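Quality-control log, excerpt.
Job 1 of 2 completed; input and output follow.
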Amino acid sequence: MDLSKEFIETVEKIVVKILEIKKYDITENTLQEIKNKWNDERLKKTEAILNSYKPLNDFIKNINFTDKEFKEMERQQIKTIMKNNFTDNESFLERIYKSKINTEIFVSFLTTVFNEYIDEKTDSRVISDIRKAQLLKEMYMEGTKPSEVKVGYSSPKTFYKDRDELIDELAPKILGMYGIKFNEKEL
C-alpha cells in the first residue's frame, strides 16, 4: 500500500512538472506569435500611410476653395435640398469639407515627420541614411514610381533593404507606441 501511494505521488510530481514545462512552452509560443503579429502590423500600417501620403496631399490641393466660396456653395446646395426634400442629414459639401480638413491635419503631421526625418538623415552624412531620405522624398512624397527610383541604386537588394529600414524607422514616428518594434529580449 505504501508503494502504490509513493508511486502515485511520484507520478503526480512528474505530471505537474511536465504541465509546468508545457505551460511555459505554450506561453513562450503565444508571446512570440503576438510579437510577430505586432511587428508585421506596424510595418504594414506604416507602409500604407507612406503609400497614401502623395494622394492625400493631392486631395488637399484639389479641394481648394475659400470659406466664402464654401458658404456660397453650401447655401446653393441647401436651397436645392430644401426644394427637393427636407433632411437633417449633413450636406455633401460639408462632408467633403470635413474630409479635406481632417486629411489636411493628417498630411501636415506626416509632412512635419517626413521633413524632420529627411533633415536628420541628410545631416548624418551616412550614405545609407542619405539614400533613405532621398527614397522617402522621391518615392513617397513626390510619388515617383519605385521602378524609376530603383534605377539610382546599385542593386535591387539595396533598394529593398533601404525601403524596409525606412519603414521600420518611421513606424514609431508615425504610429507612436503602436509603431514600437518588439525585440526577442523584451517581454
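Job 2 of 2 completed; input and output follow.
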Amino acid sequence: MKKIIVLALAAALLVSGNVFAAEEETTTSEETVVTSVEEETTTDEETAATEEETAADEEETTTEETAADEEKATTEEETATDEEEATTEEETAGEEEATEDEETVVADEEKAVVVNIDGVALEIADQQPIIEGDRVLVPLRAIFEALDAEVEWDQETKTVTAVKGENTIELTIGETAYTVNGEAKEMDVAAQLVNDRTLIPIRVVSESLACEVEWDGEGYIVDVSTPEHLAVVAEADRIRAIEPDIDEAYKTVDDVRLPIKMYLSEDEVNGKTAILAIHGGSWYAVKEDSDTWNGSWMNYQAQYYADKGYTTAAISYRSIDFNEETTVFDLIQDCKDAVAYMREKADFDKLVVMGDSSGAHLAVELGLDDEAGVDIVVAANPVLDLTEEAWKHTAKTEEDYEKASPAFNIKKTDTKFLVMHGNADTVVNYEISKKFCEDMTAAGTQADFIELDGVEHAFLLSRYKSTDEQINEYMAMIDEYLAENL
C-alpha cells in the first residue's frame, strides 16, 4: 500500500545571547576647513605687514637693491600662489573624502539588520531592528514571541512584561533599568518605542534568557542561539568527529582511486545491516587522483548510522566528465563495485543504500538491480527521469537516457523504496518522484512517498539548507522506516 505523508516541518525557534556592538563611523571636515581659513587669514595679515616694511626699506636702497627686492617679491608671490593652489587642492580632496565617508555611513544605515534564531531567519512584519550609536536594538515582541515567550504591554505605565518558562523580564520605556526574575539589571541604551513597537538592546535577550548572541558587523546579522539549539549543535559536532575504520580506495580507474570511508561495527544486531551513503552533485565527482577526500555531503549520514551501531560507508565515484567516453552507466557500476568492496570488508546480512539528488538516482538504480542485493533504498529528492534537458550530460543517446531513468523502468522487485521529496524543490520535479512511487506500487513493489511541505532541494544535506534540528527530523523519519521494514 502506498503511503503519502504530508509533513510540514518548521525549525525550532528558541532563545539567545551576547551581542557585539555595531560600529558607525562618521567624519566631518568643518573644523578642518575653519582652521584652514583662520591660518590663511593670519598668514595674509603677516605677509601684508612684511610687505609694508619692505616698501619703506626699498626707498632707502639703491636701484640695484630695489630691482633685487622686486625680483624677490615676484618670486615670493609666485610661491604664495603655488601654496594657495596646493592648499585648495588639499581642501578639495578632503571634501571629496569626507563626502565618500558620509555616503558610506548612509549606505550602512540603510542596510537591513537580519535576525537569525537558531539558524533560521526571523520574519519581522513591522518595525525592523535599528542601530543606535554602537548598539543594535531589536523588536522585543517579535523575538520573544518567536522564542515562545508571552509578552504583555501596560499602556498606563509603559511597561513590558515577558514570560518564558520560569523567567520573567520586566522593563519600562525610556529607562535603562530592567529586571529578570526580580533581579535588577542595566541596559546600555534605554528601551524605546518606535512605531508602537518596543525596541531593546539585543544583549537583553542573552542576559534574560541565557541565549548566545553573535553580531556580524559586515553582514549586519544577529545570530541568536538558544541553549537547546546549542545542545543539538554540540551533538551533531560529536557525530561529525567520528573517524572511519577504513579510509582508502575501493576501486582504481585509469590510475585514479575512487574513495570510500567505511565505519565497521561490533554491534551484534545493527552491525548486521550495512548502510551505503551516496552523494549527489549532478553526477560530478572524482576526476583526478588524490590522497584526501572529505567524505562529501552524505558522509554525515554514514557517521550518523555508525553512531547507532550499523556498518556504514560513504563513497564517491567517477565524475560524469571523467573522460569523453564516461556515461552514467559507468557511475552505476562504480557504486556496484563499492557494494562488493563493502561485502569483502564486513559481514552483514542486509543492505540499505541512500542518496541525495543524483546520488539518490544511483541508489535507486542499485535498488532496481536484483543482483545488487539491496534491501531498502532511501532516496532524497532523486533524479528519476534523465530524458529532461537538464540531465542530458549523463548519456549519449535518447535510448540510453530512458535506459538509465528509473521512471521508465518500473518493475516488481523485493527491494523496498522510501522516496522523500520537498514540494518546494525547484531543481528536481517532486511530482516525478510521487508518480514513480505510485507506478512502482501498482507494479507490486513497496514504494513509500513522503512529501515534505515547503521543503527545498538538498534538504538532507547537513548544514547546507537545513538546520541540525531539521536534519534530526528527517533522519528520525528514516529511522522509523528502517525500524519497520528491515
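Post-run check on job 2. Residues 256 and 289 are 4 Å apart (CA to CA).
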